[in-house]
Write a structure and sequence with these properties.
The structure is a single chain. By secondary structure, the chain is of the alpha/beta class. It is built from nine helices and seven strands, in the order H-H-E-H-E-H-E-H-E-H-E-H-E-E-H-H. Helix 1 runs antiparallel to helix 8 (240-252), helix 2 packs across helix 8 (240-252) and helix 3 (69-84) packs parallel to helix 4 (99-110). The chain is globular, with a radius of gyration of 19 Å.
Length: 272
């Protein structure tokens, strides 16, 4: 069989499967427990967080594990609206986002927020200039995907972030990087986004695991309440097999050398 649907999901790598099997059969402790199995689980969780953080170019303490990209998107959007909703009610996104972004936006509209949906050009591309035209003093959030999951169009995220900082300096910028993670060269610490969503099953890890990067100094309200896992940001016993498989997949990979974001962006626009 020739499989050509990797934007939907990828085959889990051997290292991911082997790592998850070990966790499920030999190292199945709860990272919150204080006995030997729990302490071992906590060490493995810490190591996996460091691996995913390295892949993102972020500090490990700013990476919070979720059940996938959908949860990460929902958390970023609802958290931003909750935190900044008294400051403004305007949000900007695109009309071609994943439903994990579009549906939360529709819910916010029902709660009285105003959402501007930027339309792409004939290639699926949305320019930073078009975003700049839509930004307002009361804009509190911009959420734009890094790579479109259907067309492959690459959005000019660095330019968009700079435009947002100029015209709406109080707004938060979130990017759904699920399709760009492991494919485009970026580092969270230098990209400038406030929040970045990623997923495991798009990069040969397993389904059911993802992460949200939250920049330092941003107290984003949690989406899920409970036992206070993930530094009180995301409650629920961590999916340790999936998380460790996620980290191990990155650690085992070898990446091509890219010349830079904009040359890759130009090639993508021409071939979309």
């Amino acid at each position: 069989m020739i499989y050509l649907d990797n934007s939907a999901t990828t085959q889990p790598s051997k290292v991911c499967v082997d790592t998850m099997t070990e966790l499920l059969t030999c190292a199945w402790g709860n990272p919150s427990s204080v006995h030997a199995l729990g302490i071992d689980a906590e060490k493995r969780l810490k190591a996996a967080r460091a691996q995913v953080a390295q892949a993102l170019g972020a500090e490990p303490e700013r990476v919070f594990f979720t059940s996938g990209g959908t949860e990460a998107d929902n958390w970023a959007i609802s958290g931003a609206a909750e935190r900044l909703g008294k400051r403004g009610r305007h949000i900007v996104t695109t009309a071609v986002e994943h439903h994990a972004v579009l549906h939360p936006m529709q819910r916010l509209e029902a709660r009285g927020f105003e959402v501007t949906y930027l339309q792409p050009d004939e290639t699926g591309f949305v320019s930073a200039e078009k975003l700049a035209e839509a930004l307002r003093p009361d804009t509190i959030l911009v959420s734009i995907m890094m790579v479109n999951n259907e067309t492959g169009a690459v959005m000019p995220i660095p330019e968009m972030i700079r435009a947002t900082r100029r015209k709406s300096p109080l707004a938060l910028f979130h990017t759904d990087a699920v399709q760009g993670f492991f494919k485009l060269p970026f580092k969270a610490k230098t990209l400038g986004a406030d929040m970045i969503s990623v997923s495991g099953h798009k990069i040969h890890a397993s389904k059911g695991v993802g992460a949200l990067y939250i920049r330092s100094g941003l107290p984003l309200p949690p989406l899920i309440l409970g036992g206070g896992q993930e530094s009180n940001y995301r409650s629920g016993t961590e999916n340790l097999p999936g998380i460790c498989g996620f980290g191990a997949t990155y650690a085992a990979r070898r990446f091509p050398t890219f010349r830079g974001w904009f040359s890759l962006e130009s090639r993508t626009r021409r071939t979309s």
